[in-house]
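Quick one:
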Amino acid sequence: MDPALDTWDFSSPLISLWINRFYIYLGFAFGFSLWICFQIVIRKQNKNSPEKTTPKASQNLMTNGYISRPKKEVFVSGVKIFYGSQTGTAKGFATILAEALSSLNLPVAMINLKDYDPDDRLIEEVTSKNVCAFLVATYTDGQPPESAAWFCKWLEEAANDFRFGKTYLKGMRYAVFGLGNSVYLSHFNTVGKNVDKWLWMLGAHRVMTRGEGDGNVVKSKHGSVEADFTAWKTKFISRLQALRKGERKHCGGNCKKGKCESNQRGSEVAEPGSHVQEELPHRDAEDEEPFGSTNEEESDTEDHQSSNPVIDVEDLGKIMDHVKKEKREKEQLEGETSAIRSTVKSEASERRAMITPALREALTKQGYQLIGSHSGVKLCRWTKSMLRGRGGCYKHTFYGIESHRCMETTPSLACANKCVFCWRHHTNPVGTEWRWKMDQPEMILKEAIENHQNMIKQFKGVPGVKEERFEEGMTVKHCALSLVGEPIMYPEINKFLKLLHECKISSFLVTNAQFPAEIRDLKPVTQLYVSVDASTKDSLKKIDRPLFRDFWQRFLDSLKALAAKQQRTVYRLTLVKAWNVDELQAYAELVSLGNPDFIEVKGVTYCGESSASSLTMANVPWHEEVVRFVCELVDLIPDYEVACEHEHSNCLLIAHKKENYSFPSLLWKEAYIQPVSKE
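Output:
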């Protein structure tokens, strides 16, 4: 026998297992296969069973003592009642509504608009599945009550701000009840109408027709504002119950051919996820117009009458009265037109105002506070941000400008270009020379500061606003002359700048490089900007669309005039993807021509659709693309280096390498209010 085997003890169990390991593996594999087959058979049986939920229910009954109901899709998770009240009526109605809704076993929250921050919280209603009810009163001269003033102002600005868009609140469901008095006919329920309109413009879904309470018992539809509210409340609760069942739209009783989609939808069993799928790609019929009828019965009657082509003989008298009324109105309009024409002829010898009534209406709607006949001021969104203790704009990052103490204004709304990326969609006038009435600079500065302070005052008590920032914001320390138009066109621009500096207000002035003579004659400002929107003649013509025929020569002469200025100067480059981002060498040559102290490179901001521009979001460069452009440009201009970055604004700063001029010294102090000489 082999002596090596003598050392092994085959009686050991471990040795036996090791020798027979393959049989053990085979047994485990066979058992696992049987278990898999058993599971497959069970699943097939459950799948083919017609009452697959019964065994589960029976099992729950046996084990837990109850039968669990299948989980249903939740269409309404709660109701939020927002109220803005001056005398307490709207708040009282909100309390009544909350008590009435308690019977529906839904979470109900009452929210005072004074304590609500729409900037942060309104977007939450898009996905919350809540239904929001707004009870708002109209106060003196059609203004909202003090508690709802900030909410209404924010909502109006958001509705008219292209950056929010038409789908910002898509998914939010709301209903509005306004409180007013028809004695003041011109302002009757203005706030309720506006809130309804602005929510609709932002893409929110109106679940029912707006209700209007009338404090004038003579003309109130139900006899009093309380009765008006009770009628609206009843409809709202009924609509809410329908929404909880999954009905998408209220049935008005005018279903054609006996088919009622809402009833069919409500009778169907709701499947999981159907709430999301039921949203159609288009707005509902009652969402097509922001100003719907406030009386469903009236609208139903009108629809019924319009669908009937036969005219009753008794109605002919009304029709003839309507025709006569239109004829009288036409004659009156022609008389007014002739009077206007005669007035225009008599004033033809005088200079006309730059701001026409139509322009005033358009700019006021955009949030401008207009001054005199050609100036304006507007509150920047970064000012609002910094008032609330948040970040400032790129000027704060680059130069230390405190955004909440910055006033954005212009002494001239007119411009000599029609840039494709114009923020105002060319609502401002254009011209190559000053041909309008002229206001005095003292009046412009005084009213600009007053209007700016009045806009700041509106933030008092707004949620999130810091008290110390609010107090500081009342004192203007910086003026950005870059709001809109071409400020250098204003004939008294030098006097206006002198007044600014005398008030210890620093000045950043931006010009579009089409007025070289005015640049040469301009007195020193704290910082002088020239917009360099392109580096070749063809691309400048496409992007800026200047009015001057000799625009390119004017552009080059403006850069040369900038180089001769003994003060701090800046190039502002706006990158438009597929338009002006491939001209690096030409940009480098323009830098050597003007020799600016700084170069700000910023990606274009998309301003929404406009018939005046073909730009889309595809033309907006990514921040990484702007960074790459800046790095490549710096390689071509060795006297410059990248100094700072503000990613939120998609902007970078390039600074000149100067021995006697270091970047950190730019942090804004009172010493820099007066213009800084290069020497």
